Each structure stands twice: as C-alpha cells, then as structure tokens.
C-alpha cells in the first residue's frame, strides 16, 4: 500500500513538473521556482501559481470558509478568482468532492469573498499610508508619478476617465488597479472619497496588485494592468495561472 501511494505521489509530481514543457523537465522546474508553489483549481483543473488563486478551507463546523490571506489551518481548496467559477463550484458541489466530506456552503459566499478582498486591499493601502508610501488626491498622485516615486496607480471605479488619462499620460508604463470605488479608497485616507491614489513602495505595490487581480474577478468593470514596456499591454482580469491543492 505504501509503495502504491509513493508511486502515485511520484507520478503526480512528475505530471506537475512536466506540465510546462514535457520535453524539458529541468527548464520547467526552474520556472516553477520562479512563480512559486503550484496549486490546482478544483473547478477548472488548471495548474499554476498558488499566489494567483483563492484559498478556501473547511471550518470545524463543516462550513466552507474563504481564506483570502491563505493562512488558516487545514487543507486548502483552491479556486480561480472569479465570481462565475465560485458560483459554479457551489452549484456543482465541488467543495464537498474536493474535501471528500460533506460541507455546508454559506449563502452569499461570492459576496463575502468580494468583501474580504476589498478589506484586504484597503488594509494594504493603509499600511502603505502609515509608512509614508501612499498618496491620495489628483495633485499629489500627479506629483508622485511625475517624480518617479509612484510604483502603482489606483483609480476609483466611479472616477472620471479624464483624470485617469492625465495621470496615465505621465506614468504610461506604471501598473494600475481600478478595483475600488472612491468611497473605499477615501476611507483609507480619512476622507469621504478619493478618486486617485498612488503606492510608492515597490514590494508593497506587488503584493497589493496580486490581491487587486483577485478582486477584479468579483467586480464588474474592474481592471488590473501590471504595466508594460513600449508597445506592450499587461492587462489582466484575473486570467492568470491556476493551481491545485
């Protein structure tokens, strides 16, 4: 029995290793080190970076619990960050199948995930603000962009296209995230609303954009653009790589 289990693990490990390029396992291993741990989406079966997926766990009471920070104890059940895919997983009872046990799915799970992702985005922006690495307001964001300090531009979903265009004309290759509304951004800065904001710390901006990409899968009209070099566009609507458990 142990031999069969070990053979199954080795076989599965081999499939994951050779998924990128069956003819070049060494090259694939190097790519896997670059993107980090791999996981499988329980709905699509696609494999990819752990950081690009949403993690769920089964709580002690048997209820499915979203784990947007990927820190809760228990076996992870991973999904591509998309409202449609989550609703399909619920409808087809894929959580129970993946967990191999009966589970309860709370009503409004997709809305709950969206709210948690909004909260996490705001917490990360707040962290940047407290460390002096965030600015809000058109003039401050424009100044941070022009001076080369801005690493990520945040625009409100309900903001004007004209204001975005003026800032983007200066920071045309900077990453942008249009996932929060003006009230949500403003609340982080102690205002009623803020249409424009900038994150000036590069490590923090990379972490924030990863969460923003997940949130974009749950909000209509949301866009995340990782930035580009000349002639390139790096736009994403949470269409990144998917992983397994």
Explain how this protein is built.
By secondary structure, the protein is α+β, with helices and mostly antiparallel strands. Among the domains are: 1-35; 110-236, Ribosomal protein L30/S12 (60s Ribosomal Protein L30, Chain: A, 2-Layer Sandwich). It is built from nine helices and eleven strands. It has helices at 2-17, 25-35, 83-91, 94-99, 109-130, 138-146, 161-170, 182-188, 202-216, and strands at 38-40, 47-49, 54-58, 64-67, 77-79, 134-136, 152-155, 176-178, 196-199, 223-225, 235-236. A six-stranded mixed β-sheet has the order 6-9-7-8-10-11, sandwiched between helices. It has a three-stranded antiparallel β-sheet with strand order 4-3-5. The longest helix has 22 residues, at 109-130. The two termini are 23 Å apart. The model is unreliable at 1-28 and 229-245 (pLDDT under 50).
Can you tag this structure with a few keywords?
six-stranded mixed sheet, 60s Ribosomal Protein L30, Chain: A, 245 residues, disordered C terminus, 43% helix, 9 helices, three-stranded antiparallel sheet, disordered N terminus, alpha+beta
């Amino acid at each position: 029995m142990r031999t069969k289990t070990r053979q199954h693990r080795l076989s599965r490990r081999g499939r994951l290793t050779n998924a990128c390029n069956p003819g070049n396992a060494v090259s694939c291993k190097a790519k896997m080190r670059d993107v980090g741990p791999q996981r499988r989406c329980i709905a699509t079966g696609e494999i990819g970076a752990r950081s690009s997926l949403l993690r769920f766990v089964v709580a002690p009471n048997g209820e499915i619990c979203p784990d947007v920070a990927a820190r809760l104890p228990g076996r992870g059940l991973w999904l591509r960050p998309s409202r449609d895919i989550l609703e399909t997983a619920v409808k087809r009872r894929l959580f129970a199948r993946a967990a191999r046990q009966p589970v309860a799915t709370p009503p409004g799970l997709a809305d709950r995930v969206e709210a948690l992702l909004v909260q996490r985005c705001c917490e990360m922006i707040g962290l940047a603000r407290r460390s002096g690495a965030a600015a809000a307001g058109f003039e401050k964001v424009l100044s941070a962009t022009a001076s080369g300090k801005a690493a990520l531009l945040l625009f409100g979903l309900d903001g004007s296209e004209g204001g975005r265009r003026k800032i983007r004309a200066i920071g045309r290759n900077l990453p942008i995230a249009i996932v929060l509304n003006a009230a949500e951004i403003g609340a982080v800065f102690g205002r009623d609303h803020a249409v424009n904001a900038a994150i000036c710390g590069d490590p923090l901006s990379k972490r924030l954009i990863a969460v923003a990409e997940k949130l974009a899968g749950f909000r209509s009209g949301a866009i995340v653009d990782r930035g580009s070099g000349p002639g390139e566009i790096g736009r994403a609507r949470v269409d990144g790589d998917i992983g397994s458990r």
